Write the structure tokens for this entry.
Amino acid sequence: MVHLIHLPNEIISEIVDHVDAFDLHTCTLINRQFHQVTNPRLWWSLELPNDAALVKTVRTMVASPHDLGQYVKHINLGMMLGHYTTEELVNGVAEMDITAALGGSIHKYTTINTMDNITDIPAIDKSFHQLTRQCPSLQSFNVDGSLMTDQSIMSLAQHCRQLRQLGVNDCPYLSFDLFHAIIQGGGSMLVQTFDFTNANADWLALTMGDHAVLMRTLVTHFSHLTRVSIHIFAPGDFLSCLCSSIISMNGHGVVWPHLICLELGSCHDLDDPLLISMLACLPKGLMDLVLTDGMYTDRTLEAMVQYLPGLHYVNLTCTESITARGVHHLVVNSRHLTFVDLSGCGLTSQATELLPQAGSHAVINDHQVIWLDEWAIYNMQLREKNNNNSGSWSDDDRDGLDLAPGARVMAQFFDYLVTNRDDGDDGDDGDDGDDDERQGL
């Protein structure tokens, strides 16, 4: 009989990799070795939906003889405050120090969600300031629905020098000085991923000049960005100013040279000339492009082919001004493309006549084309090249498409089936004889 205690830690690690979160606690009770390997995973990510869960977790940390805080790398904290104030939760938590419980090696990945029933804004900023001072290794920070102000963002940039990802969603007390707060905190050269969604009425009241200054700041001071996601429910000149700022910086080199993903939501007022000029200024290595709720036409799709040869993922959701013919041009001329989202674009099932190569592989719901996956795209590119060559496909032709791995394997599998079927038919003389007899009858 093999004793579990003699198993190498690497083997135990492989075992617990297949255990769900609910059973991880049970694994810590098997023996000391399992506890040593499993316990860090148990505390890797904490989901704390309310203040009661937070208090219970911190009490466990304080009561434990081990430094559990060193294992915590992600916290999703929803502060639905009822019995505790913000300061009690962050500083005391029912007369216990949360920062002492988490220790100096506090989590590297933190998400904090706060509810609208918090009204003590200065206390929130103070709490965030104290929290960021305890998080020097913080790399990813997302705030959703918080009443924090620019002071909290500045503190985050000052104390978290390893910060790489910042997500700010629906925080009504953040002003249009948000980017300046990050710059003042020294974080503009650190942040690589920026996600921003805001429906604040103060943003809606900004003038076009304010928008221009705001977007110019983002473009000129955040040169290390690899992912930008902006969804602003505000007048269209906000994104127009972003596009104009990118275009105006073109003479000074490529804007965001490391950018691989750009998401712009609510592109209602971005026309073809503006978008085409912006696409021409983006790095050639851009892989993911999202332009939703747009009014642009097939001309912009043609510009994607011309200026962004490395596109893998394109999201055109709710853009009814594009046609199936334009989508066809985008797909068959983008060698690396693996997915196109067409939800809400109004391309009905009859439009597949303009996408003949996709055939049944185009995902259709309620008579509308929803998306084209890598298999549909592969078929479109394959048959388009076959039509252009007016002949059969060679291995070199197929390799030229730079197919996604899944599509390539499926193509090779079907080629194998077709080849074997043809060989069997050629050698089955008996069947041919039967056919001749039937024709004679």
